[in-house]
Write a structure and sequence with these properties.
With 140 residues, this protein is an alpha+beta fold. It contains 4 helices and 5 strands; from the N terminus they run βααββαββα. It has a 5-stranded antiparallel sheet with strand order 1-2-3-5-4. The two termini are 24 Å apart.
């Protein structure tokens, strides 16, 4: 598959802390197979934070979604079944010693852009928290 063609993967996971490691390793494999090894470290950090939040703060299933736009943008997102909006990110400066609450601050600091949206489909509710990385910025 040429680098400029878009692709997308979804990995549905149970509410289990071990699923975070499964997502991280799956993401590494996906990016490596698509020749995006230069994005792996930052992408793994971002996916870990997003999926960890979905598993730790909700009770239902979740999913990791990874999409390559074909024009140099990688979108990483986590879906969960809880429609409650995420807490606003803390400042990394204020939370250096905190045990919790730094996840979205790391996402905000490391991603080019991030956001969230409520979801409702076929009677199911939830939210999708996503971030994007540009390949050109990560290769430098």
């Amino acid at each position: 598959m040429p680098e400029n063609e878009p692709w997308e993967y979804s990995l549905y996971i149970p509410n289990d802390p071990r699923a975070v490691t499964v997502c991280r390793r799956t993401l590494r494999l996906i990016l490596t197979m698509h020749g995006l090894i230069g994005m792996v470290d930052v992408a793994e950090l971002l996916a870990t934070e997003l999926v960890s939040n979905a598993v730790r703060h909700t009770k239902g299933p979740a999913a990791l979604r990874v999409r390559w736009s074909g024009n140099g943008v990688l979108r990483i997102g986590a879906w969960d079944a809880d429609p409650t909006p995420p807490e606003p990110p803390l400042s990394l400066d204020r939370g250096l010693d905190a045990e919790e609450g730094r996840g979205l601050a790391l996402v905000r600091a490391c991603a080019d852009v991030w956001g969230w949206q409520p979801l409702a489909r076929e009677g199911n509710r939830g939210k999708y928290i996503w971030c994007e990385l540009g390949a050109a910025a990560r290769a430098a």
